[in-house]
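Figure 2 data, in text form.
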Amino acid sequence: VTDNVRHLIGYVTIRTIILSDENTTIEEVMDRNIISVGTMEDQETVVNLFAKYDLTVLPVVDNDTRLVGIVTVDDAIDVLQKETTEDFEKMAAITPTDKPYLKKTAFEIWKSRIPWLLILMISATFTGMIIQYFEGALKTYVILTAYIPMLMDTGGNSGSQSSVTVIRSMSLNELEFGDIVSVVWKEFRVALMSGVTLALVHFVKLIVIDKTGILVAGTVCITLVLTVFIAKLVGCIFPMLSKKIGFDPAVMASPFITTIVDAISLLIYFNIASAILGLG
C-alpha cells in the first residue's frame, strides 16, 4: 500500500481483503509493520530475509521509501541457487561462472580451474620441502613414512569439517566475527574428543595389526591428536578472519586449509619423532 506519492506505508494480504467487510477501507486492515529492502541491498541479504521471515514477496524502496518494485520468492530461489553454486565452486578452488557446465567450453573450464590449481601446487611444495629436510630421519625410521598419508588426510578432513560448518553458518547469518571465541572454544572441545578417539583406535591398530613398537605408535598417535586439534582450529578461525578483513570465506575452505594443515601436520610429526625417537 502506498500513498499519493508512492511512499510505502503498509501491506495487506489477499486473504484479509476477501474476509473483510465490503465497507472496510484498505487503511483499516493494512499492516504498517512491513519489511522492505533498499535498491542497493545485497542479494544475499534479501534471500536471508525471505528465509528468516517466511516471506513470499518483499517490497523494494528507494532512499525516500518510495516503492520502486518487488522481489518475489521465485526470484529469491533463483538467487539462492546461484549463490550456493558460486560458494561450492569457490570451496572447490574453482573461479565461479554463470554458465551451465555443458555450455562451457573445455578452455573456459580450464581457465576457471587452473589459477587455483597453480596456487595450491606452489603452496604444496612446502610440504615436499619439509619431507626433504627430514629425509635423513626417515631413513632411520622408514616405517614413519607409511603413516604420513593417514596423518595428512585426517588433518585435511578435520579442517574441512570445521571450515564448511563455519562457512555455512556465516552464510546463514548464524555466526559473526564477535562469536569467534565461542566458536574456537567449541571446536577446541570437539577437536580434543575427536583427536583422542582417533588416536586410541589407531594405537590399537598399530600395536595389534601393524606390530609396531610403543615409541613409534606413540609418535604417530600424539601427532594425530595435535594434527586434529590444529586442523579444527585453523578450519574455524581462518574463514572468520577472512570475512572480517573483507575476503570471501568460501575461498578458505577445503583445498586451501588442507594445504596449510598438511604442512603443519608434517612439522609436528617430525618434531615429535625427533623428540621421542631421537632422530636428528
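Caption note: The mean pLDDT is 85.
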